[in-house]
Fold Probable inactive purple acid phosphatase 29.
Amino acid sequence: MVSFASNGNFQNQTMTTAKKKPIIRMPNLMLMVVVVVLLSLYMLPICVFAAKRQEQQQRKLRFGSSGEFKILQVADMHYGNGKPTPCLDVLPKQFASCSDLNTSAFIHRMILAEKPNLIVFTGDNIFGFDATDAAKSLNAAFAPAISSNIPWAAVLGNHDQESTLSRGGVMKHIVGLKNTLSQVNPSDTKIIDGFGNYNLEVGGVKGSSFENKSVLNLYFLDSGDYSTVPSIPGYGWIKPSQQFWFQLTSAKLQREYKNKPHPQKESAPGLAYFHIPLPEFASFDSSNFTGVRQEGISSASVNSGFFTTMVEAGDVKAVFTGHDHLNDFCGELTGIKLCYAGGFGYHAYGKAGWSRRARVVVASLEKTEKGGWGTIKSIKSWKRLDDHHLTAIDGQVLWSKSSSGNRRKKQTTGA
Ligand SMILES: *[C@@H]1O[C@H](CO)[C@@H](O)[C@H](O)[C@H]1NC(C)=O
Ligand SMILES: *[C@@H]1O[C@H](CO)[C@@H](O)[C@H](O)[C@H]1NC(C)=O
Ligand SMILES: *[C@@H]1O[C@H](CO)[C@@H](O)[C@H](O)[C@H]1NC(C)=O
């Protein structure tokens, strides 16, 4: 059987300490009591806030002294109940010995092989219909990431809420798990659709000129589940409220990057992670993508404009989704790479004999003339198959500083 990790609860400590304060007997005892109570009420939120802040700062992502930052994307785990949940679409001889535990084993192998700095789960983390207890399934699904002590982030797919928790409930449960940087929604935004819209900043190397700047920006969005508009069939989409939050966030990050100290001319590259592919994923064929397309693009049946919003914002260089397990390609449209990860989980539909897989992205910093670390020079990607050797395939450059600089130059000369 699978053992489910329970998430810890860290509160109330300040309260007990406050109560233990000795009260000296004096005529104005009542006044003293009032003062102590008021003081502890005043201190409590400060202590909690300080602890939270410290936690956030400890977890702040940044490039290490290798000058690289690596992200492992796990798409569509479709976790059920663990060992009793069988694999789908494996070869007949593989069937008897295959379960959700193979999904966990694959994550574990990927972590050992790649030693990523961040693990991103792009939805359908659990397959709700086959998960008896959503919380237990989520705990088990994320357990390999949690025990690795590597920070991780997750967004929702269209199946995560089909068990015992609502979409909000699933996201709330996720943010309570250990080592996660996931957020239910941005704290400074009052109205936003969905659950699990947030961004993470990746700082430059400690001790370098960019130690206080975010040199890589990660955006996470909830692409919804199903349309709730009767006249529009099919999957959900990224709503205007989410796009507005993205616009504001992108603009703020670009402003900070271009301001003192060390003001930059270009914006820091951004990467966006969500579950359901955008309609623009259908713009390619095998002549202009790397990877394979073995099924249709299951985006929403309407285009809510998020691709255009990203092109306009200008900082996002690549988008990573899951949802279509048999597609694992990456193609470029208008300066943005649109990439699938390919199906990861064994209780997800797949293709017998076609390995489950994961996508890896690595951003590399440029060396400055003085020998220190600068800003991002290139962003590369490949996939690994869950075969004997974890074979790496389809290596490609997603973005590089020089090529985008050249393109800009050509445009200005032409004008
Ligand atoms: C699933 O895991 C079992 C136990 O480690 C292993 O024997 C089997 O080959 C795995 N199946 C697949 C399809 O990887
Ligand atoms: C980053 O911030 C810290 C703390 O404010 C400061 O001591 C340090 O000099 C800053 N580094 C750079 C490169 O600006
Ligand atoms: C990819 O190539 C096909 C023709 O083979 C073309 O119709 C399509 O527009 C191209 N897509 C992009 C994004 O360049």
About this structure: Confidence is low (pLDDT under 50) at residues 1-26, 408-415. The pocket of 2-acetamido-2-deoxy-beta-D-glucopyranose (ligand 3) is lined by residues 283-285, 287-288, 333 (CB under 6 Å). Residues 98 and 351 are 14 Å apart (CA to CA).
